[in-house]
Structures are given as structure tokens and as C-alpha cells.
Amino acid sequence: MIVVYTPAGGEAQHYDAGTLLVSEASIAARTIDMKWPQIKSGLADEDLDAMRAVAWVLKKRHEATLRFGDFDPVVGEMVTRYNKDEVETWVEGAFILNSADPTITPDQIADALSMVPDSAFDPEHARAFIEKRRAEALEGKDPEAAATAESAPAPKSSAKKTSSASAPSTSDSSVTS
């Protein structure tokens, strides 16, 4: 998720939650008394505290002395948008419905996804990806099957043998002694 903060009269600033370090996520969580999964969920719901905490922690990378209390945007100045990977996951999930229920057409799925570009950080990419998946579905291409068929064979171990096979023991003692 990307927090878009547009201060009044200013340029939009983008804060990608996917770039947070663990330490930064911990600082955000402690600051607003939420666990990281709650913050992630809150970003999807445009929770003001979650958006503010993520934007603040990422702003601190360039403004080290910025205090949380000093970063207090107006309610309408922040929104969240889906990044490219999140959009693609959303669209792929929707088109899986076509393989699960052939009565749902690719055009119906694309129509149902018409609001996705409005929620995407890159609306053009979202539109193009929806159209690409619609066209593939109409042609009967299954991207999951294609990905499996195109995947490389499992790599063979490059580990070198470090010892020879065990030889029978010449000791008179038993194994358990």
C-alpha cells in the first residue's frame, strides 16, 4: 500500500508501506498502539492513524527530528493506493473465478474490476493489466498453468561430497558401548 499525502497547496508525497524496515514498522506500531497486521489492514481501510504512522515513519528518513505530534495532516490530505503487485494479485484473484465458474465471463470479471484503477497508485498499469488478463481469459489461456509449464526444473545441489562412504568398523566394541 502506498500512502499519498497531499498537503494543502503542496505537491503529493508518496510513502510506500512495503519499503518499511522491521524497526520502522515496530516504531509505527508502538506509536499508535497497534500491531503491524492491524496497521496493514488499517491502510487498506484508509485508517487515519495507520496512514499517519506509516507516512510519519517514512518521512523521518529525511527529517530525523520530526515528531509524531508535529506531523498532523488534515483528514482529507491522505489516501492509500494499491501498488502494482497488489493490483496484479487482486486482478489475478478475480480471474481465477472464471476457471472456477465458467458461467462468469471474462468481460463480466473485467466490468467488476472497473473500480480497481481508481484505487491504484498507477491507474494506467491497472487498466492495462485488467485488459491483458481479460484478453488471455478470452483466448482460454490459464496464467497459472502457463507459469507452471514455464518454470525451470528444480536446481540440482551444487554441494560437494565432503567425506567418503563409511567403511565397516574394525572395533571389537559394540555400537552401543
Can you characterise this structure?
The chain has 177 residues and is mainly α. The protein is built from eight helices and three strands, in the order ββαααβααααα. It has a three-stranded antiparallel β-sheet, covered by helices on one side. A hairpin with a 7-residue loop joins strand 1 and strand 2. Helix 4 packs parallel to helix 7. The longest helix is centred in the middle third of the chain and has 17 residues. About 13% of the residues have low confidence.
Give me a quick take on this structure:
The protein is 47% helix and 7% strand. It is mainly alpha-helical and 177 residues long.
Question: What is the structural class?
Answer: mainly alpha
Helix content: 40-55%
- Note poorly predicted spans: 145-167
Strand sequence of the main sheet, in spatial order? 2-1-3
Our measurement of the CA-to-CA distance between the termini, rounded to an integer number of angstroms, reads 62 Å
**How many beta-strand segments?**
3
Order of helices and strands: EEHHHEHHHHH
The coarse silhouette is elongated
Number of helices: 8
Largest β-sheet summary = 3 strands, antiparallel
What Rg is obtained from the alpha carbons, in whole angstroms?
A: 26 Å
**Beta-strand content bin:** 5-15%
Mean pLDDT: 85
